[in-house]
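I hope you will forgive my troubling you with a question about protein structure. I am sending you one protein, given as its amino acid sequence and as whole-number tokens for its backbone shapes. Thank you for your consideration; the sequence and its tokens are set out here:
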Amino acid sequence: MQALVLGDVGRFDVVTLDDPVPGPGEVRIAVTASGICGSELGGFLGTDGLRKPGLVFGHEFVGAVDAYGPDVPPDRQLPTGTLVTANPLRSCGTCPICLGGHGNVCPQRKLLGGHVHGSNADLVVVPVDAVHRVDHLPDLGSSVFAEPTACALRAVGRTRIRAGGSALVLGAGPIGLLLLEVLRAKGVEQLFFTERVHGRVAAAEAGGAKRLSDRPEELVRQIKDVTGGLGADAVFDAVGSADTRTAATLAARPGGDVCFVGLHSADGMLPLRDLIRREVACTTSFAYSPAEFGTAVELLGRGDLVFRGEIVHADLTAGQRWYEELIKGHPAGKVVLQPSARRT
């Protein structure tokens, strides 16, 4: 099969690999579309600490059932050619963390395209129980966004935001746009966002959100002006820089919520005394549960949630170019790579 392999930091190679063979309980999928995730940009640059040279990236994908491994009972097998996506996060299921309902942070978790070869290739192998059928859904193409949508669903669910409330999202990249979409669908009436890349602004505004300044002092003044001097009920940092983390805490109302989602920087300082005095609840959100992934597939497929950003479709062999473009700041909301033999 043809695959896009990280040859070295900052360099992808298009190479021919042996077709993967599905093992017990696994299914092989012929990839039709594989999205580039923002987290993979750090892997390309060698800064994320997870992805290493020799790896096939990719964990947001749609494809067709190609072959099954041994021991998969007939009643678990979808017909060959059935369009599917798959939850790319594998947890052990037996440790105290998993048994406590937090499999998304299982110490033994494995991510497709992070720990094992991913979907930037003609073929990818995943566990059968990770597969979600999408050919019955009206919007098949949207299923490539299931994984980031599941992240957004979890983040919103980690806060106490309710219908009729106010929410601020820092950053209108893919996760930021999907956070706004989930909040809108939840009935949040006042939606605000910040974004430095001008080409991403229209997509956020299309969902009914209002842009505020990305300068912390001006942002705090503006959010208080539009919320009666209080601040937002919930603030979501979808960037993860030191500046946005601090700004998020200052923009929340007394008794409000802040959810840290972005992973841009490893560290940051928070105004803890101020947070304590205003009793602002700070939480974090990472990945998603299997149930949240399934919900994301259904919501996207039915059109209840819409990804409003610019979508670029490119041949798999153009992967190097598009990673470089995204790192330079290209405004595309999502770049979707397609194996040459399976482009439609």
